[in-house]
Write a structure and sequence with these properties.
The chain is built from five helices and two strands, in the order H-H-H-H-E-E-H. The protein is mainly alpha-helical and 125 residues long. The chain is elongated and about 75 Å long.
């Protein structure tokens, strides 16, 4: 694909044309057009940081980013604690010893020792 063709399909895409429309107009296969946009850094509207709204630089290897820096990431999580899915949100009380513990998944017992104690029929350790 020549530079002129790349510029043309970029212009057509930014004008709102579909891949199929671009393929029909330029004579380039739709697969080549899709591949160009998947490899291209200029895919239209660039993703933006959720905290400061700056454009994000996306690496090919990494999954999509949400924040431009650690500073923005920390600030956003401080402002949105309700959206966290960390262990602090899951507070449980052990069915054997009554100890309060935190876990990412629901559990009845705080340790394996309490689990084994419940299996033996002991009320507490």
């Amino acid at each position: 694909m020549t530079d002129k063709e790349k510029q043309l399909i970029s212009e057509l895409r930014s004008a709102g044309r579909s891949y199929q429309d671009i393929a029909d107009e330029t004579g380039i296969s739709i697969g080549s057009i899709k591949m160009y946009f998947s490899r291209s850094k200029d895919t239209g509207s660039a993703p933006r940081c959720e905290q400061c709204n700056r454009p994000l630089r996306q690496d090919v290897i990494r999954t999509s980013r949400r924040f431009c820096s650690d500073k923005c990431r920390v600030r956003w999580w401080e402002m949105h604690p309700d959206k966290s899915q960390s262990a602090e949100q899951h507070r449980f009380t052990c069915a054997v010893c009554g100890k309060v513990f935190f876990s990412k998944k629901p559990h009845k017992y705080c340790t394996r020792a309490c689990y084994y104690a419940s299996r033996k029929g002991g009320g507490s350790r």
